[in-house]
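Preliminary data (for renewal application), adenosine-5'-triphosphate complex.
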Amino acid sequence: MSKSEERIKEVLAFFKNKDTVLGYRKFMDCAIDTQDLTIYKEVIELTDWKEQFPDKENELIEKATTILNKISKKAIEEYNVQTPIVTATNIVKSYGQNRFTLGPISLDIKKRQVYGLVGENGNGKTTLLRILAKELSHNEGQLNFNFDKQHSNSFDLRSKLVYIPQRTQKWYGSLKDNLKFVLSNYGVSPEENETRVLMMIARFGLWNYKHLKWSELSSGYKMRFELARTLLRQPELLLLDEPLANLDVLAQQVILEDLKAICNSLNNPIALILSSQQLYEVEKISDKVIYLKEGKYKEKDDLIEQDENQLIVEIDCKCKREKLIEIFNHLSLEKLIFNGGMYVAYFSNNTNFSSVLETLGKHNIDVIYTRNISKSTRRFFVS
Ligand SMILES: Nc1ncnc2c1ncn2[C@@H]1O[C@H](COP(=O)(O)OP(=O)(O)OP(=O)(O)O)[C@@H](O)[C@H]1O
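Predicted structure:
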């Protein structure tokens, strides 16, 4: 089964299980990969209908399935990823003597990969992203890009290599007109421009916001707009600085899943590096998590390998420290710290998370939240 057939099958399964919202987004990804404007128009029309009749779920699924059948007949040429899009070797950046120094850092990333860049405030995430984006010069090391086509000027480079900063600039006019402006800069014909822009508006859940102005959008929707604007330029390497900062928890998950899906496009894949404080969410979708501490780079797996069998559990409960120490006594508790918000319990090698849960349950501890953070970068933030 080809990748394209697999995707269609996945969408049909989502529809069958009535995971319609997710299914519809994945359905749009299948449509986008056809690069066929006739298909785009059908999806745009269906999205408009969907917004008018939000309760007609079964009918929506039926209509989407008809379009999926057409998509399945389209030959989709798959992009073959071979070499990294960027290779950084021993990059060092210093802001001056006795001030912050980043690096040396070496990394490479291929299209279809997502890297999460995490670390506490002021540890060099923005500095690294800006160096990779060629917005900031570095003092030592080498940065090599391998774009599909050689860029002829800086406008061309800025299309392939896109950096979205934490704070984006204000724009004027409507959301839709601003998106159309992007494609008109590339000489796209008016009809194609309208269709591509509406497809992107549909994909990023901006359908009901397309006529709004900058000041009328919430921060989360401004970020969605920025992503839509960026993706219309078909970048090859996308660098996002804290894209989740203004989003609610659900919106964070949706945007990350969307980004992952878009990076994974069959014929137009992208390499993505994003910085974030949302560790779990980022870890879930990232192929690699890079942890920066005082400008030094660590891969999550290298750090965890050092004591990979230790069990570390975060627990939020209304219970006295002495009580927790008492009930965990038989589980080889090594230390229990309280970081102001919750407890972090460290157990020796042979303790299982299920035993911790069982013990908490057996003693009727009123647990508000608990999580096994042994394999998460979170463990470096709590200690
Ligand atoms: N232009 C500059 N001149 C001097 N020092 C700077 C400059 N820009 C950043 N720094 C310093 O470099 C360090 C790293 O900053 P950077 O913004 O890269 O960190 P960050 O991990 O992105 O932080 P945050 O999570 O708060 O955004 C900080 O100590 C900061 O004060």
